[in-house]
Amino acid sequence: MEALALFQRLGLALALGLLIGLERGWQMRERAEGGRLAGLRTFGLTGLMGGVWAVLAEDFGAPALGLGFLALAAVVILAHLQMVRAGDEPDYGITSVVALLLTFAFGALAVTGYMAVAAAGAVITALLLGLKPVLHGWLRRLTEPELFAALKLLLISVVILPVLPNQGMGPWGALNPYTLWWMVVLIAGISFVGYFAIKLIGPHRGVPLTGLAGGLASSTATTLSFSRMGRREPGLRRLLAAGVAVSAATMFPRIVLEAAVVNPSVVTVLGPVMATMTALGFAAAGFLWWQSGEGDAPGDMALKNPFEIGPALQFGVLLAAIMLLAEGARVWLGDAGVYLLAAVSGLTDVDAITLSLSRMARGDLETEVAAHAIILAAAVNTLVKGGLVVAIAGRGMGGPVAAAFGVVLAGGLATVVAL
């Protein structure tokens, strides 16, 4: 390694130690000199030491680096125990001990060439150390059902989802276990996010924000989650209707973005129609949100379990049935009718048909036909979401949603005719 590069890496190792030491020193600034395990200088020197031992390991082998780490760990642990026995250390925690050992490791990483990883790790470490009051505040507010809800969500998403086969199965290969379970995870996740958004910032702001975020992933899943909430909370139905409208309106620019990535020429026809429907959708959502008023969103509303796997599984079964029927219709009736295929696809999903038709428009399919078929799929999908709201939450929530969707679809149709 060249001398200049070595000095740069050792300098980074020192800087990373000083960064972590700055946070530790500031947190313990009220203690007397010598009354803390490590401060700014000790952390800086520890980072530099990690770098020096990494340099030595290049000549003496990797065990030398491990020996240096073990020696530091022994000294730091003994010092911590001695301070606790002497009463100089009122905190029995080992946060500073772990931070020192991490600082050594970051210094070694910086010298061995993982400079970006070392810098990111040091910044995250300093941030976590500084966020102690905030993190502990969250823990105090976290209830047992909420904790187990988070763990269950991680179980179905991180553990179960990756091991499912991502391929078509069953009749016509229409059923994809990975896709179906992903929808189950998505619905449960949106309910989870909505629960905490409502709890932390209140229903009046939490519902629209959750609808916006949910619409970026799946407006259908968001509609289902909000509809079930509306069935339980009659006083929030108009506010939840606004959330559904926000989610549905977010779908339209997502469609345009997907088409633009595959075939920008489709956007020339698709863009104006989707822009009209987006504007009308957000306007209708804003009106419903304004009508709901603060009184419609009490802060002490009875929040239910944040993790509801039952409804998500029910929707997964329903989605599987619709996917099977849609593929059956395509096989029985053939692929000649692009509009029929788009309408059938819109029953479950608009993303797949948008990408497929945009790609086909680069070949023999006319751009205008592809764009109009995508619009038809979006319209059918919007009608399906309206039907879900009416079926699950009743007319109290379904009426405002139907009115909003009617305005959106009428505006889209008028734009198509005008073009």
UniProtKB/TrEMBL annotation:
Segments crossing the lipid bilayer:
6-26, 38-56, 62-81, 93-111, 117-135, 147-164, 179-198, 239-257, 269-290, 311-332, 338-357, 369-393, 399-418
Write the record's keywords in alphabetical order, separated by commas: Membrane, Transmembrane, Transmembrane helix
Q: What is the lineage of its organism?
A: Bacteria, Pseudomonadati, Pseudomonadota, Gammaproteobacteria, Thiohalorhabdales
What residue stretches are annotated with the DUF4010 domain?
Answer: 185-392
Name the species this protein comes from.
Thiohalorhabdus denitrificans
Name recorded for this polypeptide: Uncharacterized membrane protein, DUF4010 family
> Is this entry keyworded Transmembrane helix?
yes
Q: Note the Pfam families from the entry.
A: DUF4010, MgtC
Describe the location of the MgtC/SapB/SrpB/YhiD N-terminal domain by residue ranges.
10-137
